Amino acid sequence: xxxxxxxxxxxxxxxxxxxxxxxxxxxxxxxxxxxxxxxxxxxxxxxxxxxxxxxxxxxxxxxxxxxxxxxxxxxxxxxxxxxxxxxxxxxxxxxxxxxxxxxxxxxxxxxxxxxxxxxxxxxxxxxxxxxxxxxxxxxxxxxxxxxxxxxxxxxxxxxxxxxxxxxxxxxxxxxxxxxxxxxxxxxxxxxxxxxxxxxxxxxxxxxxxxxxxxxxxxxxxxxxxxxxxxxxxxxxxxxxxxxxxxxxxxxxxxxxxxxxxxxxxxxxxxxxxxxxxxxxxxxxxxxxxxxxxxxxxxxxxxxxxxxxxxxxxxxxxxxxxxxxxxxxxxxxxxxxxxxxxxxxxxxxxxxxxxx
Amino acid sequence: xxxxxxxxxxxxxxxxxxxxxxxxxxxxxxxxxxxxxxxxxxxxxxxxxxxxxxxxxxxxxxxxxxxxxxxxxxxxxxxxxxxxxxxxxxxxxxxxxxxxxxxxxxxxxxxxxxxxxxxxxxxxxxxxxxxxxxxxxxxxxxxxxxxxxxxxxxxxxxxxxxxxxxxxxxxxxxxxxxxxxxxxxxxxxxxxxxxxxxxxxxxxxxxxxxxxxxxxxxxxxxxxxxxxxxxxxxxxxxxxxxxxxxxxxxxxxxxxxxxxxxxxxxxxxxxxxxxxxxxxxxxxxxxxxxxxxxxxxxxxxxxxxxxxxxxxxxxxxxxxxxxxxxxxxxxxxxxxxxxxxxxxxxxxxxxxxxx
Amino acid sequence: xxxxxxxxxxxxxxxxxxxxxxxxxxxxxxxxxxxxxxxxxxxxxxxxxxxxxxxxxxxxxxxxxxxxxxxxxxxxxxxxxxxxxxxxxxxxxxxxxxxxxxxxxxxxxxxxxxxxxxxxxxxxxxxxxxxxxxxxxxxxxxxxxxxxxxxxxxxxxxxxxxxxxxxxxxxxxxxxxxxxxxxxxxxxxxxxxxxxxxxxxxxxxxxxxxxxxxxxxxxxxxxxxxxxxxxxxxxxxxxxxxxxxxxxxxxxxxxxxxxxxxxxxxxxxxxxxxxxxxxxxxxxxxxxxxxxxxxxxxxxxxxxxxxxxxxxxxxxxxxxxxxxxxxxxxxxxxxxxxxxxxxxxxxxxxxxxxx
Amino acid sequence: xxxxxxxxxxxxxxxxxxxxxxxxxxxxxxxxxxxxxxxxxxxxxxxxxxxxxxxxxxxxxxxxxxxxxxxxxxxxxxxxxxxxxxxxxxxxxxxxxxxxxxxxxxxxxxxxxxxxxxxxxxxxxxxxxxxxxxxxxxxxxxxxxxxxxxxxxxxxxxxxxxxxxxxxxxxxxxxxxxxxxxxxxxxxxxxxxxxxxxxxxxxxxxxxxxxxxxxxxxxxxxxxxxxxxxxxxxxxxxxxxxxxxxxxxxxxxxxxxxxxxxxxxxxxxxxxxxxxxxxxxxxxxxxxxxxxxxxxxxxxxxxxxxxxxxxxxxxxxxxxxxxxxxxxxxxxxxxxxxxxxxxxxxxxxxxxxxx
Lengths: 355, 355, 355, 355
What we know:
Four copies of one chain form a homotetramer.
Chain A: E1 28-36, E2 40-48, E3 57-68, H1 75-81, E4 83-84, E5 88-92, H2 96-109, E6 122-126, H3 141-149, E7 168-169, E8 172-173, E9 176-182, E10 191-199, H4 211-215, E11 231-238, H5 244-260, E12 270-277, E13 284-285, E14 292-298, H6 304-324, E15 328-329, E16 335-336, H7 341-350
Helix pairs in contact in A: 2-3, 5-6
């Protein structure tokens, strides 16, 4: 069961239909999960801004760097040009190159792209090396292509799946999570969706309840042990007509949602947010038929509800990743427990944060 | 009573002696409160990194822009040179120039500065125009000088004082707040202090309890009314030997503390963090006696406990500002209520977030 | 005579009518020159993006920081919101606060602005303290208002005027300079205008000729003497429909023009570029009548000619400032010579860089 | 012959022994050139900050983005942590992933790195797709490893070699170039070295002479033809004890050197600078033996001569790349001519810019 089904209601805004990034029209998600033998626990998660040829119909986009100890590929071009021209792919730290290679191949081979010679692959990662034999770099190009090609709308599988197969979050098994918010019509009626790959630490709070403290498991709780650094990749989609500047602002607010779960963006964490608008009207054609485009753009004064929405959705997506993940045994016999659901629910009851 | 005295314990780390920014050795705070007639409700708060000549003995510093709808003066030089050469002064939006003028005069007239011709005054602000006749620009140079010259170590007055005299936070009276954390020796033993000028909105949470929702008062709760945008200025001090790069990272984490109070960094909010190290050994002399300095610098691997500390301290400083502020009547008969302490305490009890 | 009239043709693109920033439709420039007694040599230069109420009809804008040892006010808000809501005012380093105060007053008092409570004054500066008794802060609010109110279209006075009255450039008298480029119709037909306040050093080159070396006067030519650090403020206007992202790119290219004059952006130099689009169709209303604006935006693929234009115009504007400035005696008997025109022309002939 | 041997003296500072990036103590360069059949014209250039284990002994580093239309991998981590932990590898646009993969493998397999699970590979690129069948992605992991493993000190081969094998610059054959400057002792005695991969356009100037105009070949000279966009990767090394903040400033000045060659940083150009300090005393150990390091750091006041040095060296490195490159025929019969040396020398004589 997802957090909301358990009675955990984060924030004040309503969710979209699936409470997933795929509530944003056009957005698709595909995942490849690699569980092999005793020591391969990794995978790939691909987020497609729309179902067409993304290179030919780019989407406005931006990146926010929460903590740059990470290998997110493609950032400078997204920032310079204000757009995204490939799927966003998530995987493990040492397979970023593999995923880039696959994204480039995917793009070169799409119909209509026969002559293009430059592709800015956007690939994020977190380090799943506690459970996964990461030094073997077990993800192959085909795994990435499979994730892209299988992407679909509708509900998104969460937990130990795709790029979240081997991740660890607040000392428990993390993974993929998603959530969305849909603004009321008088606030614009737009949808904001978030997908996260959770692999970070801090002092876990769920809906404001001090879960990490109650469980006695949080960073520096035993100062003889260094916390295992980790990362969080966050992907944000919206159908609001935002330009790259306002998408960058939206991305920054997703990081605020991470803060609300007790994340601390530790030195070793690669915390990044990639945000894009999938609105049809703001697509940027690769080849302009005329120099001046006419683009709708939300006036600055109207972006605040979107900020609130993304904070809520990011927080809930992270919590969803924890509830969906299951105890996982991997490399060198390492085992990472799922959050103890019963105990957590009891804690949430103690703090009156579950219905 | 401050939050902690009421039984509200935010975070897991211990506070410094005063639970104030002044716990960081050398740091001084001075304030001028201007309450005149029916419509002047404003003031000045000055934070001095150390008691000496700051221009001659600069301190490493950095700025993080949470949301740049604000007039913080001096940012680009702090970023370029990595240091701060004046007190940090906070006031209202339309008196930034007044405060700059005063900081420049203060610096020019300090002994030893007879020949300097350039001063980078760092002045922050939030907009207190709901209670204060801000268009009159009621702060004068003398008010600023008085704040600087009266700065002292020890406890810091919070609430409706100095630059917090006329501010509004989550729909209640905001103001000045402060808090600190002192790391255990095995985590470095450093102190991190925060001072805030709170004047922003969102959905108030105190120690994770949904206070804003319980009180029915939060942004977009009545969508016919736009939320009053506001701002939060945050000043962070530490005695850890951090360079400007790591101070910038520390500053970013203070913004995470703001997120935990339910702040949303709305479009119109000027949310900034200025962070500096007051450690003696990292002072940067105006006139170098030799080209190469030998500077202690905390290795990246050891900054994470400071990150956790500043998140906690920023959250607590904001909460302190709310508990210290009192109902204030100002311009055009506008009244802003203090947070309803009894109700809030009842809510915190309901959510088991007060001892 | 201006550089071009002397036969110095910089670049390959044609100029606008006045070869001035005022070639960009709507842009106005006003200046106040303060020459008093033996030691006041300073002033104010104001650039208005258009002749209307700028606060009510903001213009897209961006800032590029070449070297941030400077006090440019208003940068973070321009960057965050992507627009400019006041004139850009230039003055001396220690009068930035004075100019901010004046810009705020000007804006508060404009018809239609009776209720506004927040103004982001954009004020740049360079340090004229060699010729000007800068510590006296001789510019007054009235001087700034006069510059704004007297702004007009048409030719712009260059040299020892306004904010350039007391500046020094490459060891010679600097000042205000301006230039423009007008793209051919097949490249868009847009105009780019530049105005500079020159006060920096390096190894002077004029149209590629090594003037500084020939004159034996350049930074570190006598390593016993430190070069006097200085700054360059650059303002760029265009009527091309650029958003703030592309304006930031345009601003960065203006800095490339500075490089071509032999500027080195020394440690102590405050080198900034403020760029805006004055195109009617991209104005951003203070109060939106509807949430979504329809804005024309030049496709990325078509901005390169503008880049070339601004590089040329910035280089020429700097050279113009040198040719227009005259030998000036100021504070403490300091005298700064104008560039030796005859010698320079001879050098340009030697290098075949003058017609 | 290199530019200087031909009598072209750029700037005022003396060069290092080899006039190459390898004049900076410890720096090594290795290259793999791939010329196969009619259509493969590409390669790899690797720059090693020092001869030891770079991951274990990281070097302070920074990145400046001149124009971010490029795929430079590793930027955010360099910026966040202020250091570089791998060789810097340059190749073609569509083989960045290949090079990352190789750099990761190289690092994982180095002695002492048996347990590391995270590597931030820094890989830059330009697009050689006019001469090279780039869509085939002809670079293989072995080619990259060969470049790294063959790296050495001493003279560096320039022109159509390594990552410069297939590049085009100002419409002529570009390639790899390098240069250095050695400051006099009274300015610190430090060395600054630059290596470039030239593949960009604009209006070529050599030592200030308008070569592009004289040859009638420059961007927009025939406005019916769009200029071929290109890129320039610049790597800067120094033995001055600079921290990442000052290295970022140094990197920005290298971009000024590009401007002096007539480069315009066109929309489609990926212009980046990676700068690092190879000074022994500023190495950052992967595993700190104690939390606080004592680091030498050049005081801001003493960096300006380094700025001047890098501007000169970058300009000269670009010019060297042009003089060293030879006419190349490649993909689809495309031929790119070397700059016409005799004509260029004649032009330089006409403008008195060659001895």
